[in-house]
Each structure stands twice: as structure tokens, then as C-alpha cells.
Design brief:
single chain; 123 residues; alpha/beta; 2,3-Dihydroxybiphenyl 1,2-Dioxygenase, domain 1; 4-stranded mixed sheet; 2 helices
């Protein structure tokens, strides 16, 4: 259902370096980029993630209640994503842990303040 998600960035170069590392933990690589955007994906048939300079020329801002969650292959990979994010300038929004039976999750904000989660659900 979801093809891709996008968040705004105040500093595209810095965002690119941050997500190259964080999404690299999940096996994603840059799949497309231009002067105003960067896209990461694992394979062309899966949803992708992107950052951009806002089209309207105004400064990027964080949406209240907006979050993107990245699917990890295991609880260990959730922790790996979170640790990588913290090491590369993220801020903590809730460290790795089981939030309900079979639902392991960690929250962080990127250097622009956008909120993200890495999760693994085993049902």
C-alpha cells in the first residue's frame, strides 16, 4: 500500500550522511537522488524512504504526531538501528524494548527533529 515516505530536511548533506548509516543497518542504499532529495530503498518492489528540501522553499519543519517506522528483521536489529542513530546525532525518544508481547520497538529523532521508530513484530 505505501510506496514511499518523505520528510523535510534543513541540511540535505547532513541528512544523507545520517540515513546512509542508519538505513544501511537495514540493508537500504541510496536508490535515487537529485539536488533537492535523496531516496533509499532495499529493493525496487518495497517501499522506500526519502528526505527533501521542501518544494515551497520554506524551512523544513517537524509534524506533530508524524512518525515513520522502519521494519527490522529482529529485536537485535532494532537495537542496532537505534544505536547507530544515537551514534550519528539522533536524540532519544524511547530506547529499545518490548512495548507489548512480540512488539519490540525503539524511538529516535533525526538531526532535523523528525521522529522515527525501528520495530520488529513477531506476533
Amino acid at each position: 500500500m505505501i510506496g514511499y515516505t518523505m520528510v523535510g530536511s534543513k541540511d540535505l548533506k547532513k541528512s544523507g550522511e545520517f540515513f546512509d548509516k542508519v538505513l544501511g543497518v537495514l540493508g537500504a542504499k541510496r536508490s535515487m537522488q537529485g539536488d533537492t532529495f535523496i531516496v533509499w530503498s532495499v529493493t525496487p518492489d518495497q517501499p522506500s524512504f526519502s528526505v527533501c528540501k521542501p518544494y515551497d522553499g520554506n524551512e523544513a519543519s517537524v509534524g506533530n504526531g508524524v512518525m515513520t517506522a522502519f521494519n527490522a528483521m529482529s529485536a537485535e536489529q532494532v537495537k542496532e538501528v537505534y544505536d547507530c542513530a544515537m551514534k550519528n546525532g539522533a536524540t532519544d525518544e524511547g530506547g529499545p524494548g518490548e512495548r507489548s508481547p512480540g512488539f519490540y520497538l525503539a524511538y529516535f529523532r533525526d538531526p532535523d527533529g523528525n521522529k522515527f521508530a525501528a520495530f520488529n513484530y513477531t506476533g
